[in-house]
Amino acid sequence: MYVLRIAGSDTADLVETLSTHLAERGRVATITARNDPSDTEVTAGRSTPRTAGVATSYELREEGWVGTGTNKTLAETLDELAPTHDYALVEGFDSAGIPQVVLGDHDGNGETLATAKHGDEIAIEELIAALESTEPYVTLGSLIRRAKSSPQADRAGAIATFTGRVREKDSPEDDPTELLEFETYEGVAEQRFVTIREELEAREGVYEVLMHHRTGVIESGADIVFVVVLAGHREEAFRTVEDGINRLKDEVPIFKKEVTGKEEFWVHTRV
User: Fold this and answer.
1) What is the pTM for the complete model shown?
2) Alpha-carbon span 268 to 265, nearest angstrom
């Protein structure tokens, strides 16, 4: 799922235009931050889509949901949407480090794909092309969805998965890990992923191997890496999942910085 933040004032028209264009390519969701305490119309959870073509709309406070219902953050909402949607348009959430288009004088933590004073000055097709060149928001569920849509899925009797997450501590005495930060050698890491996938998929009875490692800042308890294997039987599925994560850890140049309550350090440089 591709995620785009629309930053600035008077964003409604651009959201509507983008939603209409993106709906021709796939399922679209919108997520809007509502932070006015007097806004009594904001409810927890899903609301009626305001734009034709939008499959799902959410309204959230910056710190989570409001009213009744389950408290979910922006990240948790994106996790829920990713397996069933192709695009998500986000309004607000200035601190979210996701790709953005900026209208007027505004700022944010994400990569800026386009800027303009007003929404009608944005070249929509160029913006969509730039969005689709960014790294998609991937979850275990979205990878399983891809595996199930494989042309060879009718021959597969097993899907095996692995999920790696940020461990808070190894033992009760450890200083808790607050977050991990991951960086890669661009281009090199992608090619290593391709090589590993191709070699694993060449095995008898293995039809699809999907792997994804998140980069940037990942907080304690959050998911880091996924491996999904579509195979004829469970034996080759389990074996290939194990080999996949082991080769990813050994062969893909991904560097990890750990931040605890007392210190921070790059793991590969620590003696």
Assistant:
1) 0.76
2) 9
Closest Cα to residue 224, out of 268, 258, 194?
A: 258
Handedness of CA 222, 224, 230, 236 (dihedral sign): negative
For the stretch 149-168, pLDDT in tens is 999 999 999 999 999 999 98
Which tokens go with 41? 């119309």
46 bridge partner residues: 58
Planar angle of CA 194, 199, 204, nearest 5 degrees:
140
**All domains of the chain in start order, with CATH:** 2-131 (3.40.50.300), 140-269 (3.90.1170.40)
Compute the distance between CA of residue 68 and CA of residue 49 in angstroms, rounded to an integer.
19
Spatial neighbors of 38 by CB under 8 A, at least 6 apart, are: none
Count the residues in the chain: 271
